[in-house]
């Protein structure tokens, strides 16, 4: 549902962030490690540590605001 927006933002912020996708059905241990109980879930990492997240579908402008906030922090 949010994949097209995430893809567009990954291209827009290329070189400033990395985007990865996790199939929670195939990797339940990683999902549990980060407390993912609902999808879609976006976790923002800085220096290898989670710093923020979005749970549930959000419009592209909301995703962009969150990315900007994480990059500026």
What would your notes on this structure say?
It comes from Geodia barretti. Keywords: Disulfide bond, Electron transport, Redox-active center, Transport. This is Thioredoxin 1. One of its GO terms (biological process) is cell redox homeostasis. The protein has helices at residues 3-12, 28-33, 60-72; strands spanning 41-46, 49-55. A hairpin with a 2-residue loop joins strand 1 (41-46) and strand 2 (49-55). It contains 3 helices and 2 strands, in the order H-H-E-E-H. It has 73 residues and is α+β, with helices and mostly antiparallel strands.
Helix proportion range = 25-40%
Query: Number of helix segments?
Result: 3
Give the topology string: H per helix, E per strand: HHEEH
Biggest sheet, spatial arrangement of strands: 1-2
What integer is the average pLDDT? 94
In one word, what is the shape? globular
Measured by DSSP, the beta-strand proportion falls in 15-25%
| Low-confidence spans | none
The number of strands is 2
Output the structural class. alpha+beta
For the sheet with most strands, the description reads: 2 strands, antiparallel
**Assembly level:** single chain
Rounded to the nearest angstrom, the distance between the terminal CA atoms is 28 Å
Supply Rg: 12 Å
InterPro entries: Thioredoxin, Thioredoxin-like_sf, Thioredoxin_domain
GO molecular function: protein-disulfide reductase activity
Keywords: Disulfide bond, Electron transport, Redox-active center, Transport
Protein name: Thioredoxin 1
């Amino acid at each position: 549902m949010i994949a097209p927006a995430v893809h567009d933002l990954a291209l827009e912020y290329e070189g400033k962030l990395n985007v990865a996708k996790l199939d929670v059905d195939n990797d339940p241990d990683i999902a549990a490690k980060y407390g993912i109980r609902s999808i879609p879930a976006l976790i923002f990492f800085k220096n290898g540590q989670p710093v923020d997240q979005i749970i549930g579908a959000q419009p592209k402008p909301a995703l962009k605001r969150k990315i900007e906030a994480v990059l500026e922090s």
